[in-house]
From TrEMBL:
Residues 195-213 have a biased composition (Low complexity). Residues 162-172, 182-194 have a biased composition (Basic and acidic residues). GO terms for cellular component: dynein axonemal particle; extracellular region; neuron projection; nucleus. It is found in: Cell projection, Neuron projection; Dynein axonemal particle; Nucleus. Residues 162-215 are annotated as: Disordered. This is Dynein axonemal assembly factor 4. TPR repeats lie at residues 362-395. InterPro entries: CS_dom (IPR007052), CS_DYX1C1 (IPR037894), Dynein_assembly_factor_4 (IPR052004), HSP20-like_chaperone (IPR008978), TPR-like_helical_dom_sf (IPR011990), TPR_rpt (IPR019734). Transmembrane segments: none annotated. Keywords: Cell projection, Cytoplasm, Neurogenesis, Nucleus, Repeat, TPR repeat.
Amino acid sequence: MPVWLREYSWRQTPSLVYLAVPGQGGRRLLGRPDIFCAERYLKVSAPPFLFEAFLWAPVDEARSTARLQDGAAFFTLRKKEAALWESLLAEEVDKEKMQRIREDAVLKAHQRAKEETEAKAVRKRERSKCALEATMKLEEAERKRIEELKEAERMKATEEIEKWKKENEKQKKLQGKGRFHPMGEQHEKSEMRSSGRGASRAASRRLGVGSSGNMFSEKLQEELAPAPRRAGSIQLSFTPRVFPTALRESRVSEEEEWLQRQAEARRAINADLAELEDLSEEEKNPDWLKEKGNKMFATGNFLAAVGAYNLAIRINNKLPTLYLNRAACHLRLRNLHKAIEDSSKALDLLTPPVPDNAQARVKAHVRRGTAFCELELYTEGLQDYIAALKIEPKNKNIEEDAEKIRRIIQETE
């Protein structure tokens, strides 16, 4: 029961009320008391102490303040209307009116808190919007900067290409002048060439100059037209796998064991592939095998159903329904550990949990829980049944089975 505080001291001005609420019997108000202030209602809760006041006139709770000092609560209440009160507390307040004032105060407080929360959300959205706009502006500026850099590089590359073209044309013109002479120059220098023609031919033969009379231009043409590449073949050889660690640091026995396991795995895969190649097209279809296993399960031939599910899982090991059906067969055959293993594998494949696979997850939990209970692991089985109930809370059968398991656990304890 709370200890009601009846003692208080107060004084007032036309616009303010000063109120002090000390502890009782010399005991202090410790911790951070819960203070609730409304227009006509004031409450201080500092367990085990409780103070409640129904004020004479309304106050402005938004502009009123409270503080805790020396184990007492001090309030500065601002009046809504400037006037002197005859008393701090209202007179002739019955229980119904007190309850109505409390409810109104709580309702207004909730409404005010809701408005403040909405205002905070609006401010947060505005800040996020401003931050997003600023980020978009920065990204746009960065994009423009990158585009400008690209354009500058593009212009630079274009200028270099144009410069190269001009240099190439200039070089071609120089080569043309060295190879051909205008008719005027040939006529003026015909007599000079006729006198020294014999000597020049002999020199040309010695130097290897062609009929054009320009040795450097012919060499340049040969350099501009390289010979085609010769065809050939390259021999490749692959070295066997070698562990990268040094011999003194390696573990030879473990490495040999690893290589042996790899070789056995490859042989097993090759054997499976060779065996699957002998199957018909229907037998290579996991859905057809699943239907076959379901028919065998319905007739009570659980071993044959397990064989069909095994072959289907070898073809496609990512279908949770195959593991669920095989778990049901193992339950009938009392292979309880295998049933637990298949149910767990089905739950691993049924991820993420969505409404479409809810029914399959319920079956997996129930079958694994049943196998646990058959092994007298009732606590683990109850956990699976509770997990199934979380998925299907209205399933009466699962709820009744879970209650039976609880009773068994209680009797065992």
